Every structure is written in C-alpha cells, then in structure tokens.
Automatic annotation (TrEMBL):
It comes from Arthrobacter pityocampae. This is Sodium-independent anion transporter. The chain crosses the membrane at residues 34-55, 61-77, 105-129, 136-153, 159-177, 189-208, 228-249, 317-350, 370-399. The lineage of its organism: Bacteria, Bacillati, Actinomycetota, Actinomycetes, Micrococcales. The keyword Nucleotide-binding does not apply. Keywords: Membrane, Transmembrane, Transmembrane helix. It is a multi-pass membrane protein. PANTHER family: SULFATE TRANSPORTER YBAR-RELATED. It is found in: Membrane. One of its GO terms (cellular component) is membrane. Residues 424-499 form the STAS domain. Gene3D superfamilies: STAS domain. Its main location: membrane.
Length: 507
C-alpha cells in the first residue's frame, strides 16, 4: 500500500519532516498538512456522532470532544501527526455510567480519567510499552484493521442499491488516483466527487446529516453538577480508571505504529500525560473524552502523508468550522464516500505479510498463537485493552514455557581421597517455570553422602528458585547427604542469603 503515501521530500530526513517551522516555510509540505487535516476532519464527523450514540449522549458531546482533543493534543502530545478525538473504546467503557447516573457524572469521570492519565504519564507508565512483544503489536494492528472494516458493514446493510457502486467508485479513486498523481489526497478527491455526484443527481442515499444533528454554536466551559463527596468519587473512579487505561493503551500502541511508519521516535511519556491533559480540557468543555484514533491517524499519516502537528491542529479547527459554519454542506456528504475511505484505511492498516504462508511457515508457532489470540480477543470483545492484555499474557506463558526447557542438569560422579561424591552442573536461567522442574532432576535416594550443585552457568531470578534450592538441600538432609552449592554470581548469592531458609520447603 506504499503507493498511497506521497513521495518523501528528498532534502529532509524523517525527523526534519516533522518540524513545524520547516513545514511552514515549505508551501508543498504545508499544503499536504492542510489537506490532510481537512480529510481527517471530514472523516471524524460521522465517527464522533456514532460514538456519541454508543455512549448514549448528545452528538454534540462527541463532536466537541473531537475538536478539543485534536487541538489540545497538537500542542501537548508527544507523537506528531497522530490524531486524538472521541473514540469508540472510551464510549464503550463509560456508557454504563451515562445510563445509570447521567451526563454530569459522565463528564466528571472524563475529567478524573484525564487526571489519572496525567499521574500515570508522569510516573512512567509509558515505559511498560517495551514489554509488549512484536507479535502482540502485529495482532493489535490486524485487529484494528478488522474492527475498522466491521464498523463500516452496518453502513452497507439495508441501504439503496446505489450505495454499492458509489462505494466502488470511491475505492477506485483512493486506490487508483495515487498512481496518477499525489498532488491532492485521494480520500479528499473521493469525498468531493461522490458528494458532487449525489447532489447533482439528487440521489437518495444515506448522508452525514442522517447520523445526527450538528451543533450550531461553539463549545463553552462546562462544570459538571455533581456533589464533591467520597460517594461521587466511588461512583466515577472505576469508570475513570478504565477510561484512563484503555485510552493510554490505545494511544501508546497507535504512537508506536506511527513511529514505525514514519521511521521516527516519539516521546511516549509526554504523549501519556498529554492525553490526560487533553481529556481534562475536553471534560471542562463538555466533551465525552477520547484518545488516539487509529483509523483517522492512518488517514492522516499513511493516506494523506502528513507528518507534523499542523495536520492534527487543523483537523480540530476544520472539524469545528465544518460542523458549526458549514454544517448544511457537510450534512450532504454521502456516507458511501466515507465508507470507501475507511475500507481503504482498513486494507492499508492490515499487515498482510504477517499472514502469508511463507511467513507463517517460518514464524515460531508460539508467536503465531500470540498474534491470533490478540486478534480474536480484540475483535470478539471490541476492546483493545483486553485484546492486548490477553496477548501479552499468552506471550508471557509461551516465553516461560520455552525458557523453562533451556535449563539442563548434568550429573557426574567422582572419588576424592577415597570418598565418592556426585556433582550436578546446572546451566540455564532459573525462575518459577524452570526451578519447579529442577527439584525432580536429582537422585536423592541413590546419591553418595556428598553432593555438589554447580551453578556457574545459572542465574537465580526469583523466590521460587530459592525455595526450590531449599527444598533440594532439605531433601538431601533427610537422606543424610551433605550438599554444597557453588558458583553463584553476586546477585544470586545476595538473594539466597536474604531469602534462603525463610520460604519453607516449597514442595
């Protein structure tokens, strides 16, 4: 799908391409950012309205949230060109609170969720991203692509037949136009062409206006009318914490994906607290909160070629202008045009290389299992946090099982000064998965009365291993055997001196 992205500017490196100052001085790059922002704004409108409906709130809360999130994160975020707005993940997490306690508690939870995100950001939660394996990341990307595609299926059901050829024409434009010219983003051309056709031909097809009423005024400051009591905190805190966790996870995973696409690095810690600050601002303007949006980010970065904060900022500004000042025109955009753009995004996002037979044949079975688990759980639950969490757990179990089998125990016998003794040489990393099997590797009943356990080739990682060594020496002691443990490195020695004999037999 590389043909969809505009050609890179030869005189600038990927890092220089992210510079706002350089882009403002380069008309060609600035045009790319402006048009990308416009395309994203158009794509955000029906999504924001749909997510508002999922959350059970007025569409204006989703639209205002998309405006304030995009504008705020353009200044506060750590990943240039990433789009943050009202999202389905946040809507699903917080919808039960709207149903049970109303909009004011909902907005209060958004603000508190933002505070939690700031706290998590400044305490370094972003550093946990390095524990997410590549197979989980691939599963995350593929699951997102599937969810983006599935979210468009309702727009293709029980609709006039003309919708289908319009979507086909839209797909032809977004896939084919970049092969001819990249002067204007193909998604924008598709939206304009199909809108002009729908208006001139006066065809009756679903439009953006059918999704919900667009606001006619600017957002204003909003203070949720909730009592500032411990009871209120107990009501909103669980939802706020869930919002914070899901929002951060989706944002950091999306940022990592954009890093890979643009060959640049981003500040994940800044992105974490920036998301929190943006949610706090959004809450005080009556928005429903949000996080990074993978679909719109891919439109911005991959389909339109944007690389700076300018596109993110303009996406928010254009969104507000479109819905407030040009709402009547925006309402005429056929949903078929936006469906075509989002299907293109789904196809471009999916990692097709990961499912090629040649790739699957080379890839370890455990890696493929982790990827599939991430995809299946994410698509099944429609919750990225749960999917990634399950993927990480499966990866941990697979890793532990694999590493556990790398430990070897070799037994030798010798006679020193007429005394027979046995030596066990242990090689490998000893932790809970491997040390539990270690206990069974010794011949307690038949060994001579002097045994040496050589751990020069090992490292003790946890209390389970210390307990296993205690159990081994205690078992030998019941047989009247003297045990000597040698070869421990300094860290392992310190751990054994600190914990040895205090953990019980362990078996």
């Amino acid at each position: 799908m590389s043909a969809a992205a505009p050609a890179a500017t030869p005189e600038l490196t990927p890092v220089e391409r992210q510079s706002v100052a350089r882009t403002l001085k380069n008309p060609r790059l600035l045009k790319t950012e402006v048009l990308a922002g416009l395309v994203v704004a158009l794509a955000l409108i029906p999504e924001a309205i749909a997510f508002s409906i999922i959350a059970g709130v007025d569409p204006r809360l989703g639209l205002f949230a998309s405006f304030t999130m995009a504008v705020s994160i353009a200044f506060l975020g750590g990943r240039p060109a990433m789009i943050s707005a009202a999202t389905g993940a946040v809507a699903l997490v917080i919808a039960p609170l709207v149903a049970s306690h109303g909009v004011d508690y909902f907005i209060a939870a958004v603000i508190l969720g933002g505070i939690f995100q700031v706290i998590l950001g400044v305490t370094g939660v972003a550093r946990l991203m390095r524990f997410i394996p590549r197979s989980v990341m691939v599963g995350f990307v593929n699951a997102l692509a599937i969810l983006i595609f599935l979210s468009q299926v309702p727009e293709l059901m029980n609709v006039p037949w003309l919708v289908y050829p319009m979507v086909a024409v839209g797909l032809l434009i977004v896939f084919g136009l970049p092969r001819l010219t990249q002067v204007v983003p193909a998604p924008l051309v598709a939206i304009v062409v199909l809108t002009v056709f729908a208006v001139l031909a006066n065809v009756l097809v679903p439009t953006v206006g059918d999704k919900g009423e667009l606001p006619e005024s600017l957002p204003s400051l909003f203070f949720p009318n909730v009592p500032l009591t411990l009871e209120t905190l107990q009501i909103i805190a669980p939802f706020a914490l869930a919002l914070a966790a899901v929002g951060l996870l989706e944002s950091l995973m999306t940022a990592k994906l954009v890093d890979d696409i643009t060959d640049t690095r981003s500040n994940k810690t800044r992105e974490s607290w920036g998301q929190g600050a943006a949610n706090i601002i959004t809450g005080f303007f009556g928005g429903m909160g949000g996080c990074a949006m993978i679909g719109q980010t891919m439109i911005n970065v991959k389909a339109s070629g944007a690389r700076t904060r300018i596109s993110t900022f303009l996406a928010g500004i254009f969104l507000l202008i479109l819905v407030v000042a040009l709402g009547d025109i925006v309402a005429l955009i056929p949903m078929a045009a936006l469906v075509a753009v989002m299907i293109f995004v789904a196809i471009a996002t999916f990692d097709w290389h990961s499912i090629q037979p040649s790739t699957l044949k080379r890839m370890p079975r455990s890696e493929t299992t982790v990827m599939l688990a991430t995809v299946v759980i994410t698509v099944w639950t429609h919750n990225l946090a749960i999917g990634v969490g399950v993927g990480v757990l499966v990866a941990m179990v697979a890793f532990a099982r694999r590493v556990a089998h790398f430990v070897t125990v070799e037994r030798t016998e010798s006679t020193v000064d007429g005394v027979r003794q046995a030596t066990y040489t242990v090689n490998g990393e000893l932790f809970f998965a491997s040390s539990n099997d270690l206990y069974t590797q010794f011949e307690y009943a038949t060994d001579p009365h002097r045994v040496t356990i050589d751990l020069h080739g090992s490292h003790l990682w946890d209390a389970s291993t210390i307990a296993a060594l205690d159990a081994i020496t205690e078992k030998y002691r019941t047989h009247g055997t003297e045990v000597q443990v040698i070869g421990l490195n300094e860290v392992s020695t310190n751990m054994r001196e600190r914990l040895g004999g205090t953990l019980g037999a362990g078996h």
